[in-house]
Amino acid sequence: MADKGTSRELSDAPAPDDDRKPDSPREVTKRSWMYVLRKSFREFIDDQCPDRAASLTYYGVLALFPSLLALTSLLALVGQGQRAIDALFGIVEQVAPGQALDVIREPLEDFSASPAAGLGFVTGLLLAIWSASGYVGAFSRAMNQVYEIDEGRPFWKLRPMQLIVTVITLLLIVVIAVILVISGPVTNAIGDAIGAGEAVKIVWEIAKWPLLALAVILAIAILYYATPNAKQPKFRWISIGALVAIVALVIVSAGFALYVANFANYDRTYGSFGGVIVFLLWLWLANSALLFGAEFDAELERGRQLQAGIEAEEDIQLPPRDTRKSDKAAKKEHEDIEMGRRIRLEHADDADDADRADVDTATGDGRSAQERSRR
């Protein structure tokens, strides 16, 4: 793994959309694609992405329940709370183990039936934004590791970005929920109004799945684009990694569901905590898939640069968005080093003086002894 490049060292890197780079995926050679795929797997391990995924799982758990609380409350306000839960879990059940979903299904069903939906929406929304921004912050640190760059954005610039990304992501989740839940009554009303009720419903049932996939890809691509301190190329290159992440998520989720259903027995081992363990493991796998997609994006950019003749075999050459924080940290680190050096030299001088004093004392004692022996 290459050492992490400092933001200052990468300031002179070529522009993200340098004219020398391939302008579309079709222009990337087969050899480059093979290099990108192999390098992605290797960097996934070297960048400690499994450990980063564990950190994201922690922040994800903190953000999950407030987010679902806000979403369920919003739909409960329009009388669609239970319908929302059934639709969302119906989709997720296709990829996640059933035990993982049982952990969160019952609390949400109980809340959707309570009369406190309005208060729950406000409370859940505020908690969701704050908690989910912690996840975005952890994702930002992981992305900086992926792109081998220091965080150079100051707090007053970084934190608002994280909150904006959080709000956009939550809005996309709401869009996904609306597509799943509200679409039935709306399409029926539109179809009845134009006299083609059944035809509109059939068309929508076919069209909504690509729209859902597009919304999910967009949410992941926004995370990939906005969170690292490295300036990013055109958005279409980022969406490739998002698509890879979704495919990886489906594969690992299907494999994990097969393992849980046929080989593992978490209920026997952990008792009532079995569902919690399965849920956390699946969430860790999901975050690992997201980070693998990010690694694929980063290595695809490296492949584009190498194909353009840019020296990126050691470090990905992308300019930083900002260097002020990393410059200040480097200055403080230099001051600490200088202070430590002064302490070392001062103590070394004291030790030398003490050694010379000991030598002088020993020499004086020796001379006195010689004089006494002569007498």
UniProtKB/TrEMBL annotation:
<keyword id="KW-0472">Membrane</keyword>
<protein>
    <submittedName>
        <fullName>Ribonuclease BN</fullName>
    </submittedName>
</protein>
<dbReference type="Pfam" id="PF03631">
    <property type="entry name" value="Virul_fac_BrkB"/>
</dbReference>
<dbReference type="InterPro" id="IPR017039">
    <property type="entry name" value="Virul_fac_BrkB"/>
</dbReference>
<feature type="transmembrane region" description="Helical">
    <location>
        <begin position="56"/>
        <end position="78"/>
    </location>
</feature>
<feature type="transmembrane region" description="Helical">
    <location>
        <begin position="273"/>
        <end position="294"/>
    </location>
</feature>
<feature type="transmembrane region" description="Helical">
    <location>
        <begin position="163"/>
        <end position="186"/>
    </location>
</feature>
<keyword id="KW-1003">Cell membrane</keyword>
<feature type="region of interest" description="Disordered">
    <location>
        <begin position="1"/>
        <end position="26"/>
    </location>
</feature>
<keyword id="KW-1133">Transmembrane helix</keyword>
<dbReference type="GO" id="GO:0005886">
    <property type="term" value="C:plasma membrane"/>
</dbReference>
<feature type="region of interest" description="Disordered">
    <location>
        <begin position="317"/>
        <end position="375"/>
    </location>
</feature>
<feature type="transmembrane region" description="Helical">
    <location>
        <begin position="237"/>
        <end position="261"/>
    </location>
</feature>
<feature type="transmembrane region" description="Helical">
    <location>
        <begin position="206"/>
        <end position="225"/>
    </location>
</feature>
<feature type="compositionally biased region" description="Basic and acidic residues">
    <location>
        <begin position="321"/>
        <end position="359"/>
    </location>
</feature>
<feature type="transmembrane region" description="Helical">
    <location>
        <begin position="116"/>
        <end position="138"/>
    </location>
</feature>
<keyword id="KW-0812">Transmembrane</keyword>
